Amino acid sequence: xxxxxxxxxxxxxxxxxxxxxxxxxxxxxxxxxxxxxxxxxxxxxxxxxxxxxxxxxxxxxxxxxxxxxxxxxxxxxxxxxxxxxxxxxxxxxxxxxxxxxxxxxxxxxxxxxxxxxxxxxxxxxxxxxxxxxxxxxxxxxxxxxxxxxxxxxxxxxxxxxxxxxxxxxxxxxxxxxxxxxxxxxxxxxxxxxxxxxxxxxxxxxxxxxxxxxxxxxxxxxxxxxxxxxxxxxxxxxxxxxxxxxxxxxxxxxxxxxxxxxxxxxxxxxxxxxxxxxxxxxxxxxxxxxxxxxxxxxxxxxxxxxxxxxxxxxxxxxxxxxxxxxxxxxxxxxxxxxxxxxxxxxxxxxxxxxxxxxxxxx
Length: 361
Ligand SMILES: *[C@@H]1O[C@H](CO)[C@@H](O)[C@H](O)[C@H]1NC(C)=O
Hints:
By secondary structure, the chain is mostly beta strands. It is built from 4 helices and 26 strands.
């Protein structure tokens, strides 16, 4: 996610405390009851997979020290694993165990990436749109939709016919401004598609609560798109009689979903962020707090507990949680944003590590 929930952990300092006091005072003295808002924060989940198992503390650290906040991971047909880092590198793990610094892009906001059928890497850049990275170099693949610049491309997946599906976390706010999106009364996330034959991008879904991870089902008949602020992931049908319809794959997740990936058995791995639900509810229910966060977005970081925790869940195509792994204290892995299953292992991306975690399944 909010991959942008990045940078550094927020320590509770006097500035924040003062701001909270100010918000509470404003709330009491200036405004009447809390604003209803449109953002519906779900109740605490009843579907926690299991008690904490600490399995994410057992990861092998790949490329430790070489990878600055590797938010997402992808694997190509030959088994080479790719990631995009905060310093603008696309780095890849060759089959012989060596990390190669492959291509550098002038960007601090590279997010989700995927490998197309013809072997190119397509990566989301939260400033420019979708970039295509290949042996020939880097080019902007998609930068506009309906005449407007795409600002906060977040994750992308490709189908076997070359069509791309990608998310725009917020059509209104930029990468560093995610707290402002959180306190909007109306969600601004989108699911888009790009047709390489016509070179045109179009919007499939709007009004998503921070559109984050995207994945295609095993038959490529629906796209899963995760809504971080809503603790849920949707299914958007792209084939068959129900084409164009949307339903919920899973809601009430035990964390705020970030990236989602298809597993070899047709289920999905979803990385969950600790966005503290009570704080999120409080912030979004308080007109005064919303007003403050619009002015000082950094205050919104208060809702993020992801630096002290990590969790991933495996969800069946029927929307049932099959299993989950966590690091309850963030001792080894915190802020896990991505989980890719490949050859019996999970590869875990994070906005708070300098390595990719590898966990035997
Ligand atoms: C792995 O392969 C790369 C590219 O062929 C090579 O540069 C590197 O030295 C190899 N590493 C090892 C440990 O063999």
